[in-house]
Design a protein that fits this description.
The chain is an alpha/beta fold. It has a single domain (11-131), classed as Rossmann fold (3-Layer(aba) Sandwich), CATH 3.40.50. The chain has five helices and five strands, in the order βαβαβαβαβα. It has helices at residues 19-31, 42-47, 73-83, 98-107, 119-131; strands spanning 11-15, 35-39, 55-59, 89-93, 111-114. A five-stranded parallel β-sheet has the order 2-1-3-4-5, with helices on both faces. Helix 4 (98-107) links the parallel strand 4 (89-93) and strand 5 (111-114). Residues 1-5 have low confidence and may be disordered.
C-alpha cells in the first residue's frame, strides 16, 4: 500500500513575538501538514511577502525585548493588504475587546482567534476553513 503524504502545498506565515506561542502554533500546523515560516515581528513578515504565503497568522500586539513597541497588528494588516490584498489574515490576540474585533471585521480580516487555552484547536479550525474556501 502506498503511503499518503500529509504535506500540503499551503505556506502559512506565523507572526508573534512570543516564542512559546510561535512554537505551539507552528508545531500544530506542521503536524497537520502545512508548511510554516515564523517571524517575531510584523516588519519581518512584510519584508518576506515575496514568498507569497497562502495565509498569514498575525499577532495583534508586539513588544521588543528592549521595551519598544514595533508596528502593531492593525498597522501590519493595513500594510499586508496594501501589498498583497489576496492573502487572508487571521489575527491572534489576548484582546477580547469588542471594538478591536469589530474594527478588524470592518477591515475584512479572515478570522480573529483569542489566545486562550483553546488557541491551537480554534486556530486549526479557522485555518482549515479559510484554506478550503
Amino acid at each position: 500500500m502506498e503511503k499518503v503524504s500529509r504535506q500540503s502545498d499551503n505556506l502559512i506565515y506565523v507572526v508573534d513575538d512570543d516564542p512559546v506561542v510561535t512554537s505551539l502554533v507552528s508545531a500544530r500546523l506542521e503536524a497537520n501538514g502545512y508548511r510554516v515560516r515564523s517571524f517575531a515581528y510584523a516588519e519581518d513578515c512584510i519584508a518576506a511577502l515575496d514568498g507569497m504565503p497562502d495565509l498569514i497568522i498575525l499577532d495583534y500586539f508586539f513588544l521588543k525585548d528592549d521595551g519598544t513597541i514595533p508596528m502593531n497588528g492593525m498597522e501590519a494588516y493595513d500594510e499586508i493588504t496594501r501589498i498583497t490584498p489576496e492573502i487572508p489574515v487571521i489575527m491572534l490576540s489576548a484582546q477580547e475587546k469588542g471594538e478591536i474585533v469589530l474594527e478588524f471585521a470592518r477591515k475584512g480580516i479572515a478570522d480573529y482567534v483569542i489566545k486562550d487555552t483553546d488557541l491551537t484547536d480554534n486556530l486549526q479550525m479557522a485555518v482549515k476553513e479559510i484554506l478550503e474556501r
